[in-house]
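Memo to structure team: turn this sequence into structure tokens by end of day. - J.P.
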Amino acid sequence: MIYNSLLIANRGEIAVRIIKTAHEMGIRCVAVYVDADANAPFVMAADEAVRLPDGGYLDGNIIINAAKKTGAEAIHPGYGFLSENASFARKVSKEKIIWVGPSPHVISVMGDKLKAKELATKADVPTLPMTSKPSEAKKIGYPLLIKAAAGGGGKGMRIVNAKEDLKESIASAQREAKSGFGDERVFIERYVEKSRHIEIQILGDAHGNVVHLGERECSIQRRHQKIIEESPSPRVSPEIREAMGFAAVKLAKKIKYQSAGTVEFLFDDKTGEFWFLEVNTRLQVEHPVTEEVTNIDLVYEQLRIARGEELGYEQEDINWIGHSIEARLYAEDPNNNFLPETGTLIAFEEDLNAEARWDSGVESGSVVGTSFDPMLAKVISYGATRTDAASKLARALEAAHIGGLTTNRDFLVATLKTQEFLNGDTTTDFIDRVKPPKELTLDENELEYAATIAALWMQELNRFNDDVLGHLPSGWTNGRIPKQNIRFQFKENEINITYKAQRDKSFIVNNSKPALIHECYENGIDMEYNGRRQFSKVTIHKNKVLVHMSFGDVLLEIMPRFVVPGLEVQAGGLVAPMPGKVINLNVKKGSKVKTGDTLVILEAMKMEHSIKAAEDGIISELYVNNNDQVENGALLMVIDSN
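Reply from structure team:
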């Protein structure tokens, strides 16, 4: 089963990640891509790439044809898309192409969460009370959790606190499950409020050998999707690890699991009990933290197992050393319920002096659209202790030069620095309970400092590019005119910077504060301002200037000298909180609505977002129809209050 070429049936950071290890093993890599990804880093990293027509990453037949066309002898599905599609795995094997993953039978059984729970019960692995019948919800007791029977990643998942919300929540979860996995089946189980999400990484080969690589904790989540993961868990004792690991290996052996996989458990933080949730028959997004503490490359192991090789080690050979934490960097707005953001990344540069691993699928200039998950990168730290790992990760995120659109970077940094996180108090209610700051809060002095850096960098660049009078001092004139000035907008704040060059080549800013430029470069400036000196990366794109400070990035908008009046949002206007597609319009012009009514449902990145009425009223104007694609901030309708 030796193979020398591999097609990666995926995109973004996971495609880059697989290509890296495959290349280290001497394996030729083939990428597949849709038009939106034509210039993406993963396409450039591969040895060859094939453009996919309509259907893209979810069309198994055209991916298999791409493998045949390029002579790829094996296919790695990554995660998401077709990674847990048993039918696709079966077709791959039928075409005599090696499938890098567990058998189609195992994928089929474990991909159906209902069947998986039945098998877990037979293997004496504890499971939560559940039902697939809404009429039996009362027996389980509220709050409840609705989950998709096929797939994961938070899609098709809803918390239900009261009986009156059950019907709508089920319908919404079914639509999302259908869109994300092609299977609308959902089930209901008990919701454990004070819990942790603990998962056990397993590896199995075709010779019956199975080991576990310890646990990951993935409890910090928003919208039922993980954003910070770590290994080991700060809560799991050696005894609990052994019990969970034993249960995971027992189940894996029962189903004859081979390749990398994850057995997920829900852990009750109060009682120490744990229950089986599901088996993910693929590589997990958060796999790097396991790699860091075990020093085992999981992609390498997957590719070896697919060649028919034995693991070559036993459970007692595996050690866990140190601590690793991963943060998922998303294009999303934490202040807008973590809804996705779109736009251009005008800068995306990690700081090479900060000790962290970046698994990324984007680069400076990448455009983030609505077609795919908005994750930009995974940033992974490793330290001798958990505190070291948290500090290193926060520093790596702060030190990176990233901007152009809204991300969750500042929220991640704030989370990692909270005392609750550092104490290991990381249950699934963490965000709602702890409420870390969702954005970077700057005082007037910090804003003025960043704006001064931008202003003086821009004037230096202008002088450098001036072919006529570039040799004259900045702002030189033979008459008395006002000082040079520039106005910036930062969120709701307007910052006005005036500056005047002195004979010694220094500057006076805003009438009293001294500034001195030590060196200026095309992408940054070494500047001293009011007694403080630092080197700042600076990127300009159209009317936006991104300034990197010691605490993160500040995105400033250059304000025009003459402001053209804009259109005001109409009173009672309801605007789109994110870009997306209208998939369910529940009102028409003239409809009467009450506070809390769901008016319209938008879909973006295969996730649904319900927009509800904030007040009673009548729809006086309606500007959208079903299937319309709308931009962030687009006016959807106008509600006249009663």
